[in-house]
Fold these 2 entries.
Entry 1:
Amino acid sequence: MARSKIDRRKFLAGVALAGAASASPEGAKAATPPIMEKAPRPSALRPSAAVAAAETGTPQISAKPAGMPGSDFMVDVIKALDIPYLPSNPAQSFRGLHESLIDYGGNKKPEFLTCTHEETSVAMAHGYFKIAGKPLLVLCHGTVGLQHAAMAIYNAWCDRVPVIVMGGTDLDASKRPPGVPTFHSAQDVCALIRDFTKWDDQPVSLQHFAQSFVRAYKLAMTPPYEPVALALNAELQEMTANDRARLTIPRYVPTTPPQGDLNAVREAARLLANAEHPVIVADKCARTANGVKLLVELAEALQAPVIDQKGRMNFPNTHHLSQNARGRTLIGEADVILGLELSDYWGTVNAFIDNGEVDGAGLQESHIKPTAKLISISSVLLNTKSNYQDFQRLQVVDIEMAADAEATLPALIEAVKQALPSSRKAAIEARGVGMKKAWNEARDRTRQAAAYAWDASPIGTARMAMEVYAQIKDLDWSSVGGDRQLSSWPSRLWPMEKYYHHIGGPGGYGIGYGAPAAVGAALANRDAGRFSINFQPDGDMMYSPGVLWTAVHHGIPLLTVMHNNRGYHQEVMHVQRVANRRDRIAYAGKDLGPIGTRIENPVIDYGKLAGSLGMWSAGPITDPNDLAPALKKAVQVVKAGEPALVDVVTQPR
Amino acid sequence: MIVRALIVTMIFAQDPAAAASAEHGKVAFMQHGCWQCHGTVGQGSIATSGGKPLAPGLLPWETFSSFVRSTNRAMPPYSDKILTEGDLEDIYAYLQSIPKPPDAKTIPLLNP
């Protein structure tokens, strides 16, 4: 403290000397403005009586309102739902609740996770749920924050993932501050995201808040799981609850998921039991670890092949009935197809080739036998929104159950076992033998396909996947990113048996999901003691690189391996296709692909990017022989509880 | 003389690489964007080429050329206005030069 005083004196003396210097004739000569030639004016107005009294009199402490801050009660409500984390970017419109969460709530359950973008916040909640099975709460500015968050909410909507979003607003125009807070308010903040949230409300009292928060949680957690939203009025947060005892928090009772009608279940079982070539296709079927077990039981009862579309980890790829490699062929030969929570049934049984033929409609071909019977179990039929087209094309099916597939599986398994005629026992066993042979052959073909480009530079994606696997295979690992961008090598080559071995993709294919969803999933894995790995596409990374800082700041261990193909690869062929149709060369300029589709000139150094955000990093790596040592070090960092990034320059896919 | 010309034509039809440049073919393969779906060494991908490698095991020249010029499947056709016959022959020569991959059984990482 004494040292501080001395420093202050020296500083003031310095200021005085500097002032004297600038007042010298020499200094004035260079800097005197013309106004100085006029009559001097006082440097400040005389203080008013009120200002003088405030500055010289004894400060009066405002009387603190009795009772409880409204936002403290909100924290009580939030805590009642046992929400572990709150990934959010701070905003004035929820300052009351923010302060209550960290001071009254002790920053525990939920713990505030500092995010650098609202899209990141929601995507983290999205990834977290797919591992932990619990929804998180995200706070946003009601206007600009929700606009940032909107794409991530849409992804969660398409992926049937619950997220509870609250958008701050200040409804009373006569009380709210002008300027920024008014820019950040709206009459109906949830309107912006209403098309892709299951339910929303704008509570006008604290009791209303309690009812709506519990209702929002309940609706979000009833299949089909979906995001929900609440408008969070500033006045409600900052008001005083004079009588806390009169406020009640409704008890949360989970809703039973909708199950298929028993008659429909029995008819589906009859078709499956008597089929010569039944096929099961699963997309977002297994909501939990139990869902995987149930699907195995059903497939084994029928010895039916399973095509896993990987919206979730539905079926172990080490099982002989896992027949993804022959998906199209098996669907084409099937006499009965059971679709479980398919995002796109039409696309499963038809082909669409975008080649401009048929007056621009492209080739649209059925892939199934005309006599094939189609069965669908999907809870998405219970969604009733119309604007966004995530419901996909209408596919006519023979039996359609508006029900949750996982919840319906026990009844279906039982019905199938009862419907199986003893006369078909030998045929079903023989089908299983054939499936085992096909599974072995497919595994050998897949491994040989992985050998192509094994030593290539840019590095082949199969090589990258297997170099990573070599480093983590003895750990309890979880792949928390999509792998379609790298030819699905991890799901084709790694043994995936547990429900957390992969978590599917973004749902709505909105780019910017990958990195933050992986961090959210890694957070859930951290709490479960698992090792998380994410193959991270470069284009996706650049939407929200700030999430790397969030991972470091909150000590979320995650191995990020950059799939750095230096382009928006998905878009290349769209431009190429149209250029070819018009007999024109797609102009690349100085890049290696059509202008607008490449991320080069300059290339991005993701190692440096991660390093600048405080993360351990290595790369860019271009020689496949350099992968193992870098990955080994990175795995050690992650095992020690920190995130790490290895930048790998890769083949396009 | 006619017989000799016929023999030369037949050889060329079977193997355009005899007159083409694999080195320039690699450049053309990159410039025309073939690598974006087929990989820089023709390895292919299940995401962009049905999982089928271009090479080795290259299609016969006539089939290859005909497919590139007139396909109506997922790959768009390339007319000679945007991909000259010379460049296509050179690309074919490059693909022919790609060595066979190692046997997967000899790669320890593929046999964990």
Entry 2:
Amino acid sequence: MKSRYFAFGCSYVDSRWGTVADLIGANFDDYYNFGNAGCCNTFILNRLIEADNLLKFNSTTDFITVGVTGIGRFSFVDKDEKIWITAGDHLIYNKNNPPNPNYPEKLKLLAFMIDDYSYAVYRSWVAIQTISTVLQAKNIKHIIYPSLDNLLYLTDYDLPKHTIAKVEEILKLCHIKESLDEFVLNNYPNRGIKYEDGNSDSHPTQIQHYDYLKKYFKEFDTEKTLQRYNYLENIFDYKSINTQGLNFYKSFINKHRNKNYKIWVP
Amino acid sequence: MGSLNNILLQSKKRCFAFGCSYTSWIYPTFADLVGVNFEEFYNFGRSGCDNNYILNRLVEANQLFKFNPETDFILVGITSVGRYSHWDNHDDWICAGDVFSLSDNFKTAKFAKTIYNETWAGYRSTMAILNIRDVLKTYGVKHIVYPTVDNVDYLSGNYAYNDVPRKAFIPILKEHFNKAFETLTIKTSIDEIRNEAENKKITFIKSDYDDDHPTTSTYYYYLKKYFNHFDTDKTKEVVKLFSAQTYNDHEELKHYFMKNYIVNYRKEYQYEDSLFIRFSDAGCERMKEYRAKL
């Protein structure tokens, strides 16, 4: 039987260049990436359940990683476009860090109308708790790790005790404690890529993803992974975000990710 | 159904119920009629809640009570698709029922008008049902999941509620909602048997409105039809206590329910402080009041 790997998470899983998931994927016959840039943890839970319904997880052949994303996110299906709006953290702001003016108006409205820190923490707690419970029960080999650094929920927002407890429980449910964000902050002077056209992208770079894999996913630090890393570095297009995005899709995603399924709502 | 009923009767210690007002209301529901047959009965139903709230409460209750396959039994009443429950920043849940039909003075109504939509609502409920199915399997506890409210209008469209037109699910969502629905223990909703149960409204003499929920006798009809092993002397006793269909007002019925049912059979209020999201119903205060008098 073919070995299968399923990756779930946000842009730290599915980005414009190779992620830790893309590197792990080199070691499996079939590699599925359900990452979605800017999505929330509830979105990740739902994609996981959707993937199970579509592709039937199998405890003898499958391996799953779940990259826990930012707590202050809220993904929704747009009323007019009928597609998911996954626009990242709308709750990470304070006096010194005002809300991002570029967020979609509806997301700002949503944050203003119904969201708050405790509700956001509760949503993420239910999502990660359910992911952990379901994967354990199905006996699927899996790793839950924090992609983004959510520690600011413990320190910056003066949240009620019961909310803080839920943040701590989310962190306990992660098999790896150091987030990719913290790993980058602790080990590198810079993050992200600056393109030749002057634009930049602040996501962890391919080498940072690879080093994170070497530290925390040692069993996948293989020759195949190294070959994939080298391939990803070789095809990198530094001209602009757009050319790299298109190139990555054509030269990597199309060739190495299994897309033989149809998600319910795009 | 006989064999299912036999299995259900093996566990008699703890019963947990989750759902909307068809699970917890101001008089006994189907879940309340089942719950009297257990040593401990916890009813986490919440009027106006959505299916995601029900999932959340189920996950939360497992953390608090550590469900035990040997002793426990769980009831989940799936509710209407067109709802959106959220936590307000004043530390309380806003469970306003069907948000597509809310009048403008509700905070959630603005959200429904500008952001919420049938596709998202359908996806959320489909995923909630599948998640509920998966966590219940995981817990290994005997359970029944049944539809309370009839969702057929969401699937078909061409329907208006309070003059607000609704749209049908997109085909792929309809397909998956139906598949998820097929996993329920019972496919017939309580709403659908109301006519055959000769459902009559509870009327209030001193009030200008009646109660539109199914009556206790309708819930009893549903119980007898699908889960007749719970048609016990205790169940019959509760049905008899609530056979009247006329009361002075809501308050009178609430107090009658508290005095004759909740203080005798329900346990969830003892755990109110342990739950992440507290009960908001005045029931908590009333419960303390009654317990003090006992």
